[in-house]
Specification:
Blueprint lengths: L1 E10 L2 E12 L4 E5 L4 H4 L1 H11 L8 E7 L11 H11 L5 H5 L1 E3 L2 E2 L5 E2 L4 H11 L2 E5 L3 H4 L7 E4 L2 H8 L12 E2 L15 H13 L3 E4 L6 H6 L10 H14 L7 E2 L4 E2 L7 H5 E2 L4 E2 L1 H4 L4 E4 L7 H5 L2 H6 L1 E6 L2 E6 L3 E6 L19 H7 L4 H4 L4 E4 L17 H18 L14 H8 L3 H14 L3 H18 L6 H11 L7
Helix pairs in contact: 2-3, 8-17, 8-20, 19-21, 20-21
């Protein structure tokens, strides 16, 4: 008799179903595991043997063969322990075979039989729901997996609880969805003295998910401004939370027993490698741009990042997905994020500071910012110069709207965009609009069109630059509560676009 249970193997955020087949055969006593397992999966034999021994279940003096099908799919991770134990218990007729066969299981076993939380519970629940099976997982992973309404999720603390559940001795209650409540942001926009234009740019970027580049001398407040961006972003919707948590689950970043509605804010160091930023490694794990999906990626000291790393951002910024192609993996991850970059104007940082002279101006600035290629620079919707703050200005009272008030305006603008793109599943915010959709929602009035024509002739706007000005203008109109894009909206959008561009 061959007993069966089911589990999953991960390819990116996709969970592929794996059938665990177990047979107890005549022959020399042994425990063999086949099906292209890695070291962690192969070691499951000893963990399962010890866990069964802790339950006073002795293995028969026969040959035990476990096959992980499909056999040509690499199996990685410790989450195969529980399904292997489940199939073996069914083969020994300790639990009903039909119950094991209707279960997708994942979990790591301790030697005493307790279950340890593993990564990937959320994608596994999606796969179990698609196959119409029950999901069995460690209790700590239950609140995460229970977010998938279509799947029944059972969380167990030990293998003994699993046996008692399937034998009917003590039925386990289904897991309930868990949500992590993040503390309110403690950083307010009013903490930043001055820099009103930069604050306005942050509000526009947050409202339409427009990429932002801030340039200014050291100490002008670029990092302070970026750190306050999460405080004005609305919480994740249920769909966005599920998408983001799928990536974080595969990466092993969900460890608090639930899903958070707080938008991701990732800030990698400029020494990060290409695999760390875009994803990769031996098992093609998601990188920072995917971990920032539906959130913010803040790259301080932008020109200091390796040129090859910066150039890999160009395609993900346009498409919202990143394809990781390796010899043993070909994986696609979503990565629709808001890129906020900060840079000094030159190597010494004082090119634009009137109080301090740069000895190599203007070549110092051109050489330094020249590390960022033109095509990548063209993908920034908003470019602002953050001037230095005088010491005397620090004694002035706080100015501008607090983060809570700005967040309300951003949430209102995003609600308008959700209604606008309700019939277009591939678009959510103005930054996603293109083609006919962009012409339909962002065609400016006659004065605005004339202004764009003059700017294109004088500053040499590219076609991408032209469309990005229209998207930003549409967002500014949404913040203004206007149904149409008018001349003032185009003028403000263009002022952020042409900053730093030399006249042709």
């Amino acid at each position: 008799m061959v007993a069966r249970a089911y589990t999953v193997a991960f390819e990116g955020v996709e969970a592929r179903t794996v059938e665990v087949q177990c047979a107890v055969l005549p022959g020399l006593p042994g425990f063999s595991l086949v099906g292209l397992p890695d070291k962690a999966v192969s070691e499951a034999r000893e963990r399962v043997r010890a866990a069964l021994s802790a339950l006073a279940i002795a293995l028969p003096s026969r040959r035990i063969s476990v096959n992980l099908s499909p056999a040509d799919l690499p199996k990685e991770g410790s989450h195969f322990d529980l399904p292997i134990a489940l199939a073996l218990l069914a083969a020994l007729e300790i639990i009903p075979a039909d119950a094991a066969e209707g279960t997708t299981a994942l979990g790591e076993l301790s030697l005493d039989g307790s279950l340890i939380a593993v990564t990937g519970a959320l994608p596994a629940a999606m796969a179990a729901a698609a196959e119409g099976r029950l999901l069995l997982c460690p209790r700590a992973s239950g609140p995460e997996a229970a977010w998938v309404d279509a799947a029944q999720v059972i969380g167990a603390a030990s293998l003994g609880e699993v046996v008692r559940h399937f034998t009917g001795e003590r039925i386990l209650a289904p897991a309930t969805p868990g949500e992590v409540t993040a503390p309110p942001p403690g950083r307010d926009l009013r903490d930043v003295k001055g820099q009103e234009r930069a604050k306005r740019a942050l509000e526009i970027a947050a409202a339409g998910r427009h990429h932002l580049l801030m340039s200014g001398p050291p100490g002008s407040g670029k990092s302070m401004l970026a750190a306050r961006l999460p405080g004005i972003l609305p919480p994740l919707s249920a769909t966005e939370a599920l998408e983001t948590s799928m990536i974080h689950s595969v990466a092993g970043l969900i460890s608090e027993g639930g899903i958070s509605r707080t938008r991701p804010f990732r800030e990698p160091h400029h020494t990060a490698s290409m695999a760390a930023i875009t994803g990769g490694g031996r098992s093609a794990k998601p990188g920072e741009i995917s971990l920032a999906h539906n959130g913010v990626l803040f790259m301080d000291e932008f020109p200091e990042f390796p040129r090859a790393v910066l150039e890999t951002l160009r395609q993900p910024l346009e498409t919202g997905t990143v394809m990781i192609a390796r010899a043993n993996a070909h994986v696609s991850y979503p990565c629709r994020f808001l890129l906020v970059a900060a840079a000094n104007p030159c190597k010494c940082g004082h090119l634009t500071d009137p109080a301090r002279a740069c000895s190599r101006a203007p070549n110092c600035g051109e050489d330094y910012m020249g590390r960022v290629s033109g095509p990548l620079m063209d993908r920034f919707d908003l470019r602002i110069e953050v001037p230095p703050v005088a010491f005397s200005d620090l004694d002035l009272p706080a100015s501008g709207a607090p983060s809570a008030q700005v967040a309300e305006r951003v949430a209102t603008a995003r609600a308008v965009q959700r209604a606008r793109f309700a019939a277009r599943p591939d678009m959510r915010l103005n930054a996603d609009a293109e083609g006919e959709a962009l012409e339909e929602i962002a065609t400016p009035d006659a004065e605005g069109r004339a202004l764009l024509t003059r700017l294109a002739d004088r500053f040499g706007l590219t076609a991408r630059g032209y469309h990005r000005v229209l998207r930003v203008a549409r967002t500014i109109a949404d913040l203004d509560g206007s149904d149409t894009v008018r001349h003032p909206h185009v003028a403000e959008a263009a002022s952020f676009r042409i900053a730093g561009i030399k006249e042709t």
